[in-house]
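Deliverable D5.2: sample structural annotation.
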Amino acid sequence: MAADWIAHRTLVDVKATITPDKLPGKDIHQLTACLLLDYDDAYRIERLGWYHARNGALATRGTAEFLTLRDSRHPLARVREPANDTSRG
């Protein structure tokens, strides 16, 4: 599981679907996991994006907006805490 690249503090996942207007839940979960696994904020990710290779379109959202759309009521640092605690054991 991994996103495809980080550029200008944007974590991007490339998709080549025939329906670029529909993003499956598993793809949203994948990018969410990548965001949360940057425990120490080493990459300073500010935006998440999906690049649709078939039509050359990039759709992005700020991390705060993305987490709000995912029903999170907490800032990114706080959302990362449980995953960070679990990984460090």
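Annotation notes: The first strand starts at residue 5 and ends at 7. Helices lie at 25-36, 63-69, 76-87.
The annotation will be released with the project's public dataset once the embargo ends.
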